[in-house]
Amino acid sequence: MSAAPATGEARMRGFAILEALVTIVLLSFGILGLVGLQAKMQAAEMESYQRSQALLLLEDMAARLNTNRAVAAGYVTATPVGTGDAEPEDCSVKALGNARDLCEWSNALKGAAEQLGGNAVGSLIGGRGCIEEIAGAVPPRYQIVVTWQGLHQSRAPDFDCASGTYGSEALGLRRAVAKVVAIADLTP
Fold first, then answer.
1. From CA 156, how far away is CA 142, in angstroms rounded?
2. CA atoms of 104 and 106, how far apart (whole Å)
3. Does 4 have pLDDT greater than 60?
4. Contact 131/162 with Cβ under 8 angstroms?
5. 116 Cβ partners below 8 Å, 6+ apart?
6. What is the spatial distance between Cα 152 and Cα 81, in angstroms, rounded to a whole number?
7. What pLDDT is recorded for position 186?
């Protein structure tokens, strides 16, 4: 004896189950794509946040240097300040002027303004800053550079500040913003 042939209704039920499975698979791929997009958006948001923080820190030091024009040369740094430097957490031990300004800028680069569990988290990843005098410039000009570690690869910046401190330069994880400040001589 042979089995009775399948009715049209049974075949339709099988087809509906197949359609549901295909729909679930397509939705799964769509959701995975959205998760990947969300992760990339978060990384881009963090990169944008760090760049805005770097610009604020850059403007902060430019204002400090402009305020103390007479001793602008004292702001020049031989090594980057910020992450990994020897500046104290309490800058009140430093005399007022460029030494205290550099200490406070170093702590801002380290993110000391915001603490979480005893760790400084208020700024850039590996924030560092450099100030150098542009040789032979009249009036005197100083280049201020703020660097930090990016989250994904990019082209390495042209500035030497903190070069090699964020891994191989070929990886392109170092980010930088810079500003040149000219010190005008206003004496008659």
1. 22
2. 5
3. no
4. no
5. none
6. 24
7. 72
Tally: H helices and E strands in the chain: 2, 6
Between the CA of residue 159 and those of 52, 55, 169, what are the distances in Å?
18, 15, 12
Provide the mean pLDDT of the chain. Answer: 88
How far is CA 144 from its chain centroid? 16
Its pTM stands at 0.79
Euclidean distance between the first and the last CA atom of the chain, given in angstroms as a whole number: 118
> What proportion of the chain, given as a percentage, has pLDDT over 90?
53
- Region 67-94: what's the mean pLDDT? 91
Picking from 57, 18, 50, the residue whose alpha carbon sits closest to that of residue 174 is: 50
| Cα–Cα distance list, 183 to 62, 98, 133 (Å) | 11, 15, 11
Helices (H), 69-181: 98-110
Q: How far is CA 83 from the centre of its chain?
A: 13
Q: Which stretch of 5-14, 30-39, 45-54 has the lowest confidence by average pLDDT?
A: 5-14
Across-strand partners of 148? 175
Binned at pLDDT 50, 70 and 90, residue 161 comes out as very high
SS3 143: strand
DSSP state of 51: H
